[in-house]
């Protein structure tokens, strides 16, 4: 005796297939529409364009847009200053000279410091969801908040932005020292009467690099 029939089996298979297809469509819709996009992690070997791409996202957040824009500008200026210094070094020294290599090494190390500060800024930005900034940085405070809570929120707000300003300020210091180095190299004649390490700006940059490495 036959249990069921070909027609019943085909019907059951069709219903099962339809149910599975519906699940796939629902999951795909959730992934595309509801699930928040994963934040692209910045690796230590990231290039300036990677940092810029990340910072551009935070320009859409009212409380962060000015700092994000300045960080992007610092990346752009770093790239231009490095190119200008590299061209000047090629004019003043032979790439095989020890002086050329010393200058170039310091410039590369200082560039890494600037990138390190940019990573620090992005790390701070990722501490909060963009929607949270409107609450914890807004000028209007809900009436149900106590004075003590408002004070704590204000202190947190001030600490957060003080940290961001410190990173940005450190980068401005780096860019200023590179401008000084550019000027000092341009004023060198064909020969250097003193070791490269004793040139004032080189000493400042070397000290900055050493100090930063001590605290890493």
C-alpha end-to-end distance: 80 Å
Overall 3D form = elongated
What's the helical proportion of residues? Answer: over 70%
Mean pLDDT: 77
Structural class based on helices, strands and sheet pairing: mainly alpha
By DSSP, the count of extended strands is: 0
Mind summarizing the main beta sheet? none
Order of helices and strands: HHHHHHH
Which spans of ≥5 residues are poorly predicted at pLDDT below 50? 24-45
The rounded Rg comes to: 28 Å
- Beta fraction of the residues? under 5%
Count of helical segments? 7
Give the SSE layout.
Elements: H1 6-34, H2 48-58, H3 65-92, H4 98-125, H5 130-136, H6 147-186, H7 200-215
Helix pairs in contact: 2-3, 2-4, 3-4, 3-6, 4-6, 4-7, 6-7
């Amino acid at each position: 005796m036959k249990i069921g029939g070909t027609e019943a089996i085909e019907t059951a298979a069709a219903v099962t297939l339809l149910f599975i297809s519906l699940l796939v469509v629902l999951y795909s819709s959730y992934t595309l529409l509801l699930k928040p996009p994963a934040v692209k992690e910045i690796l230590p070997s990231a290039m300036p364009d990677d940092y810029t791409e990340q910072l551009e996202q935070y320009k859409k957040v009212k409380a962060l847009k000015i700092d994000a824009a300045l960080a992007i500008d610092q990346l752009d200026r770093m790239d231009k200053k490095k190119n200008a210094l590299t061209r000047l070094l090629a004019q003043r020294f032979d790439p095989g000279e020890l002086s050329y290599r010393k200058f170039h090494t310091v410039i590369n190390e200082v560039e890494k410091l600037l990138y390190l500060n940019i990573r620090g800024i992005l790390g701070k930005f990722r501490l909060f969801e963009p929607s949270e900034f409107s609450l914890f940085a807004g000028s209007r405070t809900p009436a149900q908040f106590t004075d003590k809570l408002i004070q704590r929120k204000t202190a947190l707000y001030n600490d957060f932005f003080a940290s961001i300003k410190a990173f940005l300020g450190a980068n401005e210091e780096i860019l200023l020292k590179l401008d000084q180095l550019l000027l000092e190299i341009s004023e060198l004649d064909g020969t250097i009467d003193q070791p490269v390490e004793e040139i004032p700006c080189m000493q400042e940059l070397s000290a900055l690099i050493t100090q930063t490495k001590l605290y890493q």
